[in-house]
Structures are given as C-alpha cells and as structure tokens.
Amino acid sequence: MAVGTYALVSLDELKEYAGINSSDHDGLLEKIVNRTTSLFESSTRRKLKARDYSYDPDDAAYDPDNAVLNGNDRDRISLPQYPVNSIATLKVNDMEIDERETIYSCGWVIEDRAAGIVTLSCYIFTKGLKNIELAYNAGFSTVPDDLYEACLEQAAWFFKQSPAGANLLGVAAKNLPDGSISYTTKDLLPYVQRRLNHYKKRFVT
Fold first, then answer.
1. Residue 3 forms part of a structural domain
2. Does residue 122 lie within any of the structural domains?
3. Is the torsion defined by CA of 14, 20, 26, 28 positive or negative?
4. Which of 92, 117, 138 is the last residue of a domain?
C-alpha cells in the first residue's frame, strides 16, 4: 500500500522523524501514515490537504457533498472545505456567474480564503435545495507546522505500539523515577487531539 495522495506527511518524513533507517517496515509505515491522516480528517470533520471538488458527475473530482450546496438568500456563503485556493466554476440555479473583475463590477469574489467565504456582487445565493454548484480547490497547499508535527508524533507513536516497533501496546507515557506507566485506549494522543481541535470544521452557512 502506497502513501495516499493527500497524506499529511510522507513515508520518508516519518522515517526521518522516527529514526528508522531501514526499509524493512515501509509497508507498515505507509499504512500508518494513511491511518493517521484518516483519523485527523475524521476528528476535524474536514479534508485537510488541498484538492479539487466538482459538481459535475463526469469530473474525476465529483463530490456533491462539498460542491453542491443549498442557497441561503444571502450574498455570501461559506464553502464546506477551506481554505479556498481557487474557484473554476460557480453556478446559482444553473446560471454561471463569473469572477468579479473590479470592485464596481458584478460577480463572485473570495472574501476570506482562510474561512472559505465567497461573496456575490449584484446577485444572491438564491434560497433553494442543492441549487448552488461549484468547481473549486480547497485545503492546505502547505500543511501548517503544528498539524504536520502532530501527524508525525501520532504516526510515530502508532509505530512504537506495533510489534515491529517497541511493542508498547497502549503505553502513552512512562513517568520517572518511580517507573509508573500510564496507558491510553484512545486512537489519538490527548495532546494531538488538542491541536486538532483548532482545525475542527465550523458550521457551514
């Protein structure tokens, strides 16, 4: 199994972080990278690495959950995936709207890339069910440092849990000098989960 296209870290980055010099466990490490990325996305309820989303069933990026939205009768809308890097197509009630060229012209503009807010001039996102269609790119083109480090820490911990690693089997910390050991049964380490809380998906309007 290869590391997924949208993995938050690479195999080589994990190996360097964990001090692994051989290729004996590359298959396991690739699975761990993919598992960790999947857990991060489940925890934050969003896709983190940049990718395309499309309303078009014939498009390889077809994703109706993220590219076909309900209108709200307002001139702005929050896209479900963010930060927004670019918009290729935006339709309201099957009418394509172009990007606004100047502050005095009509069209759409990305008001807040980080929050995924798109605003219309001269139009509104007419209220309706699945009447807003988009093709856009969203997510982190460069993974933020704290998210990147959290992924490395979590993935390295998963490896140490395995028989191929230190075979810790749930050990989260060892408290010296008395040698007492604490255990965790959760998928994510507590301090990793705290970091992910900052990236949790906000309510979309």
1. no
2. yes
3. negative
4. 138
Same-domain status, 44 and 55: no
Mean pLDDT of the chain: 90
* CA distances (Å), origin 92, targets 1, 64, 65, 85, 122: 41, 15, 16, 20, 13
Structure tokens, 33: 């990278």
Q: Write out pLDDT tens, residues 140-153.
A: 999 999 999 999 99
pLDDT tens per residue, range 101-157: 998 999 999 999 999 999 999 999 999 999 999 999 999 999 999 999 999 999 999
Residues 43 and 67 in one domain: no
- Residue 2 located in a structural domain: no
Residue 124 sits in which domain range? 51-138
Residues 32 and 81 in one domain: no
Q: Work out the pLDDT band at 95, boundaries 50, 70, 90.
A: very high
Q: CA-to-CA distance for 12 and 10, rounded, in angstroms?
A: 5
Question: Cβ–Cβ contacts within 10 Å for residue 179, how many?
Answer: 7
Residue with tokens 């995936």: 81
Which residues, listed in sequence order, are joined to residue 135 by a DSSP beta bridge? 54, 89
